[in-house]
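Response to reviewer comment R2.3. The reviewers asked that we include at least one raw input/output pair. We reproduce the pair for LacI family DNA-binding transcriptional regulator here without editing.
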Amino acid sequence: MRRPTLEAVAARAGVSRATASRVVNGQTTVAPDIRDAVLRAIDELGYLPNPAARSLVTQRTDSVALVVSEPPTRVFSEDPMFATAIRSASVELEAADKQVVLMLASSAKSHARVERYIAGGHVDGVMLISMHGADPLPTALSRLRVPVVSYGRPAVPIDIPYVDNDNIGGAESAVRHLVESGRRRIATIAGPQDMIGGQDRLTGYRNILRDSDRRSIVAVGDFTRESGAVAMRQLLGDDPGLDAVFVANDLMAVGALQSLRLAGRRVPDDVAVVGFDDIEAAKYTEPPLTTVRHPVAEQAAAMVQLLLDLFTGGSAEPVILPTELVVRESA
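Raw output as returned:
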C-alpha cells in the first residue's frame, strides 16, 4: 500500500498543496477552518510527513546533539551522574517535541566525527557535558553558527552559555562544617584539575582553610571510586594524623571510606568524611555519607531550557544553581 502523499492530503481537504504544507509545518497563517480540514484529511489518510522534506522547508531537524566528552567505559559506568543528566535532558527535550542524539567524544577521531555530523546540519543545537581543559569541541562548534550550551562552565575561555552549580560555595559549606565541628587536619581528595568542577571544589576547600589558619593537604583523583581509595591511602601515608577529609565527589568518597576501614580508622570518630553530589548510594554507605547535594537533574533540565531559549532568540546568560549541605553520620 502506497504511503499517502501531501498532494493526496491537499486534494482530500480541498486546498492547495502549499496550504496543506503550511499546516503540516505548523505555520499559523492558515485560517482555523482550513487548518481543521487539513488536519482531518491527515487523520483520515494516515499521512506522515517526510522528515527530510520537512527539514528542507522548516530549516529545522527537531533534533539536538548531547555530546559527552568521555569514553563509553566512563559514561556507562557506576557513576550515576551521566545517567541522571542524560535522562533528565531527554525528558525535557521530549516534552519540547525534540529528539536527542547521544554522541560520545573522547578522542581526536571522535571529535572530528562529531564536528562533521553537526556541520552537516543534522541537529538544531548542541549540549556539551563533561568537558576537559584541552577539549577542542567548544571552539570548533562555535565556528559552525549552531546554538551550543554547556553543562558546567567551559574550561576554556569561550563565550558559550552554560548552566552550572555552585561548586565553590558547596565545597566551602562542606569544609566549613568540618572546621566548625573542631577538625584540625582537614585533607581533600580533589577532582581532575582539567575540569571546572574539580578546580572549583578545590578552590572552595582552600578558601575555608586559608581563612581558618589550617594548611592544605591535597591528593587528586579522577572522580572514580578506585581513585578515591588510592588517594585516601596516599593521604594517610602523607599525614597519618589527619582527622577529616573533604572528597570532591561521592564515588571517590565511597573509595575513601573503604581505605579508612582497611586502615583501621573509625568514621567519624577518627576521621570525618564529607563528599559532594549526594548520589543515592550516599544514604547507604557505612556510615551514611555527609555530602553536598549537586542538583544534577535540575542542571540538565535547565541546560535544555537554555538551549530552547536560544532557538527563539532568548537570553544566553549563565545559570548557577545552588547546592546544599546534607549532614549524615560520616561527619
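The longest helix spans residues 80-95. The CA atoms of residues 5 and 47 lie 7 Å apart. Further pairs are available on request from the corresponding author.
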